Amino acid sequence: MTKLIIGLGNPGEEHMEDRHNAGFWFVDALAKQLQVRFETEKRFHGKVAKARWEGEDLYLLKPSTYMNLSGQAVGALCRFHKIAPKDILVIQDELDIKPGTARLKLGGGTGGHNGLKDIQAHLGTPDYWRLRLGIGHPRDLAAEGARPMEVADYVLRRPLQAEQKQIAASIEDGLQILSLLMKGDPQAAMLELHSKVN
């Protein structure tokens, strides 16, 4: 059973609407749904909300470090609450998936995502769940005639209005399959999520 859900992003007002903060958007939506509030927890290097789900404790975490140091928060909370990697779900933005699409997977590579690299270093394993929220790639915009943009600039910018709606729809799709994952049926969760078209 999932016991910790981490939303990845960068702290600070100036980053709230960046594509790179899609993970924060997801856990904020989940906290609202579960009617819990985030509180700053310095020992866990982040903001933490605690909820009950199916009689179990569920922690939501937004690291307050920058993205490339996300593992500090994850490692600290997992050690304190004795949470195993298989009971973790990390919500991340994904360049290689188009906006409006979400994908669930266990383990695998980091795809160059600095937040995942640091989490893997702190956990000592890649075997945790990831929910990948598509944000598209700047080469897609360039193909449509837009000015070429570096990946670093792209992820630290606000999505176009149409993309924002698509990302919001993929967050909703992710929230809808969460109960299947929480109940220990990841195959059903993946089947339902991966069959959605936005």
From TrEMBL:
Signal peptide: none annotated. Gene3D superfamilies: Peptidyl-tRNA hydrolase. Its EC number is 3.1.1.29. Keywords: Cytoplasm, Hydrolase, RNA-binding, tRNA-binding. It comes from the Bacteria. GO terms for biological process: protein quality control for misfolded or incompletely synthesized proteins; rescue of stalled ribosome. The record marks 93 as: Stabilizes the basic form of H active site to accept a proton. The record marks 10 as: Discriminates between blocked and unblocked aminoacyl-tRNA. It catalyses: an N-acyl-L-alpha-aminoacyl-tRNA + H2O = an N-acyl-L-amino acid + a tRNA + H(+). The active site is at residue 20. PROSITE patterns: PEPT_TRNA_HYDROL_2. SUPFAM superfamilies: Peptidyl-tRNA hydrolase-like. GO terms for molecular function: peptidyl-tRNA hydrolase activity; tRNA binding. It is found in: Cytoplasm. GO terms for cellular component: cytoplasm. Its main location: cytoplasm. Belongs to the PTH family. Monomer. PANTHER family: PEPTIDYL-TRNA HYDROLASE. This is Peptidyl-tRNA hydrolase. It comes from Polynucleobacter brandtiae. The lineage of its organism: Bacteria, Pseudomonadati, Pseudomonadota, Betaproteobacteria, Burkholderiales. The gene is pth.
